[in-house]
Amino acid sequence: MSRFNQLAQTTAVRQVQEEMGSASAAGRRLREQVEEPDPLDARSADFIRSLDGFLFASVGETGWPYIQFKGGPQGFVHVLDPYTLAFLDVRGNRQYVTAGNVRGDDRVALFFIDHARQARLKVFGHATAVPVDQDLALAERLESPRTEGRVEQIMTVRVEAYAWNCPNHITPRFSEREVSEALAPLHERLARLEEENAALRAEIAARP
Q: Coiled coil: which residue ranges (predicted)?
């Protein structure tokens, strides 16, 4: 069993799998325990770098989960090494729920999804949030690219395990940037045609 499945498939989860007839599905069979964290492979690292946002889940002292969207330019989540993700956290609504949660329990789940490519990646990890002045060298390393705004802290996630989801039910959606890039050749073609059309009209108008 993979490290991710080992952490995710608890006794209760496996009981439901048994009830639903999926316990023997590929990748769910009980195998020897995996104790070491999973290093991110090149595909996963490149996927994370290519995105402009992800969902960040933490758990508070009440036991309730909390999900926050983190966004920025492509690559604002930096893959420092196969076990470490980091980004500069900027000022938002100043509730600091996620920052407070990881101080009490550093276990988090990250959900990276690309609607355009219908792909998603799940990550388990241990998060820390520290003021920028505690590690100025790392803060400088994370400066470009980063989310616009007033930087308040460095968020680091030590990867414990990850897994790719199937693409089923991911609705294809495209960001404004992706639509603009896709339509750019068409706009250029239309501009050239308009110039040609204008030149032909001028030529016709000039004929005796």
A: none
By CB atoms closer than 10 A (0-12, 13-18, 19+), residue 185 is exposed
Strand partners, 130: 154
Type and span of the H or E element at 159: strand 151-164
Give me 9's structure tokens.
């498939």
**Of the CATH numbers 1.10.3720.10, 2.102.10.10, 2.30.110.10, 1.10.10.60, which one belongs to the domain with range 37-172?**
2.30.110.10
Give just the sign of the alpha carbon dihedral 60, 73, 130, 111: positive
pTM of the predicted protein model: 0.83
Give the pLDDT confidence score for residue 30 in this predicted structure.
Answer: 54
Q: Does residue 28 carry a pLDDT above 80?
A: no
pLDDT, the chain, mean: 91
